[in-house]
Design goal:
The complex is a heterodimer of chains A (184) and B (544). Chain A contains five helices and eleven strands, in the order αββββββββββααβαα. The mean pLDDT of chain A is 92. By secondary structure, chain A is α+β, with helices and mostly antiparallel strands. The longest helix of chain A has 16 residues, at 168-183. Chain B folds into three domains: 1-44 and 138-166 and 175-229 and 241-257, no CATH class; 284-408, Alpha-Beta Plaits, CATH 3.30.70; 412-539, Alpha-Beta Plaits (2-Layer Sandwich), CATH 3.30.70.3190. Chain B is rod-shaped. In chain B, helix 2 packs across helix 4 and helix 7 crosses helix 9 (209-225). Helices cover 34% and strands 19% of the residues of chain B. In chain B, 42% of the residues are buried. Chain B has 544 residues and is of the alpha+beta class. The chains are: A alpha+beta (184), B alpha+beta (544). The interface between A and B is large, with 35 and 40 residues. The complex binds zinc ion. Residues 15-16, 18-19, 140, 142-143, 147 of chain B line the site of zinc ion.
């Protein structure tokens, strides 16, 4: 029979010109634009194949054009999102979210701020605590280490949400249309 | 008191040859294989020394007296209760609800067959022992024909058919008899008569019907089906014959009147139905190690909403030839083959080296596979090139605990192919300069340690990919050994070899999973990094 040494990991080098990032490998991106009628108030929800969703800001969000120091505030009304805790396989005790729920506020040094809505129904599993210490991650890697929260919903809700929201291609189309309109 | 007079007394009461031996208290299995010869010898040998009157008396029982009560027998007795001369055993209704797992029970099994008058005793046999009652209908008044070979062919055929159908490929079997209660009652009556007729007759020595049946019927059944008869404690296959006697209820009527509550309980549980039953074989466990060479093969069938996502799995590739060996169809295989392993790897992870320990539980195996067949199984499993199994050996049930334990406590060695995605923190390079793995990078990884007693202690959150079905925890896990190597002709790649605690998610450590595993490989390398491929190089467990 074959000897173990016959198989080497070096025979598994993929095409390095077509590498995908971690989120592009495992997640499918969806977008909501102009939330509450606010231009470029755009969020991105990344769905894992197992229905877990990551919330972040879409690249077109006005946040990315504003060059001012900011921090994330996870206290929403009386609820502290940082104290969210889930128990067991069923994630009991997680804060319940609906599309309008505010997950965090982004507060600028000049006193202005904006809310980040959840965009979908589900249970909050965890927020990215690291953003408290390193808020710049959100600007640098919004679809990676700068994600804002992890949300779990039922298969039905995640499927429905996925089909309702804009796919990546649709999102690019919407952005193109806006640009054209702006130029007119 | 001698054998001859007991035999004569039994014969007078209508016993068959084998029952004569039973009442003699004979316990030699060989004697029951040819009871007739024994009876002839017993009567013949002792004939000279015994009172000729008795012999004459027996011999002169006129055939025409057969319908009379055995008035001429020594210690003349009356008929056994209820139509003892007319047992009419016949195939009964299929038993509707038995506790046995086989569907076979629905096949009616003929009890002692139709009476075959005179067939057992060829009239031209000069040595034929006197057998008054037998002449009437040929069926023994005591065992109801169970010990008479002329009633056996139907039983033999039945058992053979069922065995052929079931395809138990074992070499031994055990057989057991579920006899009518009436046979016990009749046996008791004859024993009492013998006590009256023969002084000092010890009915405590009587050989039980079931034993005699095993030695006589069982022995010839073994020849008929081509299997060796063994004890029920040894053989994995038990054939139980349930014999029903249709006159039973009437015959036991007197007893029923004595203790009706006992009868009520009995009929509520089980009637004396005819069945063919078997006992399951003890499960068989085969142990081995599998090498997984495919990056598109899950360990177990990957189903989403009942739909299969990939064409096969390690489990299916290993089980298919085993199912074929035991001739199990898909549904049987699903119920009777169980795949167990010391942990698992992801679909896109190979498992090399000696492979991962696994075991297959085979429920109710028809037989033990031979050494050659085990080799053949390995060859068949390995033929597709996706999974290699070099050796399969039978393992004990106790041994299986090792697999579970191995899953939880054993270390694993991995090889990970990684790509450096940014310049290291201390590299003074223009942003557009190509990213390359440097000697410094390798040294940095090789020197990296954040704890005593191991190389890396990391805090790992439950990975997102399993978070939908597992609780969210932060677990400390250790990397025990870690080395980084350059990859020839691939300046951006590095090869890592690491040994970890069980339960460490290597991919998540390598790419950091959005910061959910800390520290991650990026912290050692001081640059962004991702993983391209992962192999399990060794699973550290002595198995099988
Ligand atoms: Zn008998």
């Amino acid at each position: 029979m074959e000897t173990p040494t016959e198989f080497k990991i070096l025979d598994s080098i993929p095409d390095l010109n077509n590498l995908k990032s971690f989120t592009d490998r495992y997640f499918s991106k969806r977008y909501i634009t102009d939330i509450d009628g606010i231009k470029n108030n755009d969020i991105m929800i990344m769905f894992h194949s197992n229905r877990i969703a990551l919330l972040s800001l879409a690249p077109s969000h006005f946040f990315f054009n504003k060059d001012q120091e900011y921090k994330l505030n996870f206290t929403v009304g009386k609820v502290d999102r940082l104290r969210n805790a889930v128990k067991g396989k069923s994630k009991k005790g997680g804060q319940l979210l609906n599309p309008k729920s505010v997950v965090c506020k982004i507060e600028y040094k000049d006193g202005t701020s904006f809310d980040v809505p959840c965009g979908m129904k589900g249970t909050l599993i965890e927020v990215n605590e690291e953003l408290v210490n390193q808020p710049e991650l959100l600007k640098q890697y919004p679809d990676a280490d700068g994600y804002i929260a992890i949300i779990l919903s039922s298969i039905a809700i995640s499927e429905a949400t996925k089909s309702e929201l804009l796919t990546h291609d649709e999102y690019l189309e919407v952005l193109n249309r806006c640009e054209t309109k702006d130029l007119e | 008191m001698n054998q001859k007079s007991i035999i004569e007394c039994c014969k007078e009461l209508g016993c068959c040859d084998a029952c004569c031996l039973r009442f003699l208290g004979l316990k030699s299995p060989a004697a029951y294989e040819n009871p007739k010869q024994y009876v002839i010898n017993a009567l013949g040998k002792q004939g000279a020394s015994v009172s000729p009157a008795l012999v004459v008396q027996v011999e002169t029982v006129p055939a025409g007296n057969q319908t009379e009560p055995a008035a001429t027998a020594p210690g003349a007795v009356s008929e056994p209760p209820h139509a003892a001369s007319e047992p009419s055993p016949a195939p009964s209704e299929p038993s509707p609800a038995t506790s046995e797992p086989t569907p076979d029970v629905s096949e009616p099994f003929p009890a002692a067959s139709e009476p075959t008058p005179g067939a057992s005793e060829p009239p031209d046999d000069a040595n034929e022992p006197p057998n008054k009652k037998m002449k009437v209908d040929g069926v023994c008044t005591t065992c109801l024909g169970l010990l008479q070979q002329e009633n056996w062919p139907q039983c033999n055929a039945m058992v053979k058919t069922m065995l052929d159908k079931k395809r138990y490929e074992c070499e031994t079997f055990a057989c057991a008899l579920s006899a009518p209660v009436a046979a016990l009652l009749r046996e008791r009556v004859v024993a009492l008569r013998l006590r009256d007729a023969c002084a000092n007759y010890d009915d405590g020595a009587l050989t039980p019907l079931k034993e005699a049946w095993k030695w006589s019927f069982g022995a010839q059944l073994a020849r008929h089906v081509g299997l060796a008869l063994d004890s029920g404690a040894v053989s994995p296959l038990l054939v139980t014959l349930h014999m029903e006697y249709l006159e039973e209820a009437g015959e036991l009527e007197a007893l029923r009147r004595l203790a009706p509550e006992l009868f009520a309980r009995r009929s509520a549980s089980q009637r004396f139905a005819v069945e063919f039953t078997r006992r399951a074989h003890a499960p068989l466990y085969l142990g081995g190690r599998y090498v997984k060479l495919s990056r598109t093969l899950p360990q177990t069938p990957w189903l989403v909403n009942g739909r299969r996502m990939l064409h096969s799995s390690v489990q299916e590739l290993i089980c298919a030839p085993i199912a074929a060996l035991y001739r199990l169809d898909a549904e049987d295989a699903e119920h009777r083959l169980k795949f167990m392993s010391a942990g698992r790897e992801d679909v896109d992870v190979r498992c090399l080296g000696d492979g991962r320990p696994f075991a297959i539980e085979i429920t109710d195996p028809t037989r033990q596979p031979s050494e050659a067949e085990l080799q053949q199984l390995c060859a068949q499993i390995s033929a597709g090139g996706q999974v290699l199994v070099r050796r399969l050996v039978p393992v004990s049930r106790e041994h299986l605990a090792l697999l579970k334990k191995g899953e939880e406590t054993k270390c694993k060695t991995y090889e990970a192919l990684c790509i450096k995605l940014s310049h290291a923190a201390d590299e003074q390079l223009p942003p557009a300069a190509p990213v390359r793995v440097t000697e410094r990078d390798l040294q940095r990884v090789n020197a990296y340690s954040n704890c005593a007693g191991a190389r890396v202690l990391l805090q790992q959150r439950t990975p997102i990919r399993v978070l939908h079905r597992r609780p969210l925890h932060v677990r400390p896990r250790r990397i025990l050994a870690l080395s980084a190597h350059a990859v020839p002709a691939q300046p951006q790649l590095l090869l890592l070899r690491l040994r970890t605690d069980a339960g460490l998610y290597v991919k998540e450590w390598a790419h950091g999973e959005l910061g959910r595993t800390r520290p991650a490989l990026a912290d050692a390398l001081q640059a962004r990094v991702d993983i391209l491929a992962l192999d399990v190089a060794e699973v550290d467990l002595a198995w099988p």
